[in-house]
Amino acid sequence: MKIVDIRATTVTVPLEATLRHAVGAHWGRFVRTIIEIETDEGIIGFGEMGGGGESAELAFTGLKRYLIGHDPFNLEELRFKICNPTASLYNNRTQLHAAIEFACLDIIGQKLGEPVYNLLGGKLRDEVPFASYLFFRSPNKPGGSGEIRTPEQLVQHCAQLKREHGFTVHKLKGGLYHPDYELECYQALAAAFPNDKLRYDPNAALNVEEAIRFGQAIEHLNNDYFEDPTWGLNGMRRVRSMVRIPTATNMVVVNFEQLAANILDLAVDVILLDTTFWGGIRPCIKAAGVCETFQLGIAVHSSGELGIQLATMLHMGAVVPNLSHAADAHYHQLTDDILVGGKMKYVNGAIKVPEGPGLGIKVDRDKIRQYAELYQELGGYMYDKDPLRPEWVPIMPNDRWADPTQS
């Protein structure tokens, strides 16, 4: 079997509200690049990649000459074609490779009539548990709905998600407001849901001293882990030495070199594996094996997925034995998806692993066209800008906090 074509289409799918975070915002929508890889046998596999509000179509077009004529079964050769360590010094192709790997695994599964999880060793679980993902939000349009900026609004939103989807683990995305204010919000969640686990993630916006102070203030709560409170392995190591909560990261351990450094001098207890950031499902499974050997926890990170990447997260989550924490997903923040039938469903806080051949999903081409046209109308957005603070520039550690009294 040979690859005969690769096609990339950029879509933008609306969110319920604008999601604000430590270094900017998702401006009321996600921008994702959808790829289709076609073979000489007529099998088409799908992949997906984000880009912080930007299209990656041109980057995929640039890789087309590497892919035409390649056998999609030759995944290791594909990895070195795209992610050769020397060539990658000029262009970081890891995330591009991830989307291509997704599509090739989808093709292989369809060819063999097997779900991707069977290509990866077989599933250990039929469903993957997820945490709610709580953001401070602003309406997509002036006077619109969906605002979350007070402890009361945050608790109300969390309660709604718990009723609708059954979440028992809740993650607060912070780094937007002053740490003292976000501490108040986090404590309000703990008081409202005393039997549920909590996570706090300010995207490394705090300096080390603030991270230690925040962590010590929440030690007595039902914490799952303390995610990226500050930047770098050295900073995380110091926080870990002073705070009795497991540390976690998706920012400072995102490849095997960093994983080795963390093992040699432990700074992070839980590694959040992202099927895009690590370069595909298979690298995540390799990393999970290393974590199993050294008794590090793992979870599944969310980078703003639509249904194609969510399927990769589910297949990965199905096969790794040491998935010790609920996965993250922005998915419930979306108003729609590009899959036939719309969004996948949460049941008791979990999503069922797709069982059909390949990724086990059906892409709705009418939805692709609809949201590609929306992207053509709206274009991209600046992920590292806050629409409510047009002159603001993110720095790390941050001391330019947003004002929670201003909507």
From TrEMBL:
Q: Does the entry feature the keyword Nucleotidyltransferase, yes or no?
A: no
Give the top-level enzyme category.
lyase
The protein's annotated catalytic reaction(s) are: D-glucarate = 5-dehydro-4-deoxy-D-glucarate + H2O
Taking every annotated instance into account, which residue ranges of this chain make up the domain Mandelate racemase/muconate lactonizing enzyme C-terminal? 151-246
The domain of life for this entry's organism is: Bacteria
Q: What EC number(s) is this enzyme filed under?
A: 4.2.1.40
InterPro entries linked? DgoD-like, Enolase-like_C_sf, Enolase-like_N, Enolase_C-like, Mandelate_racemase_C, Mandelate_racemase_N_dom
What's the name of the protein? glucarate dehydratase
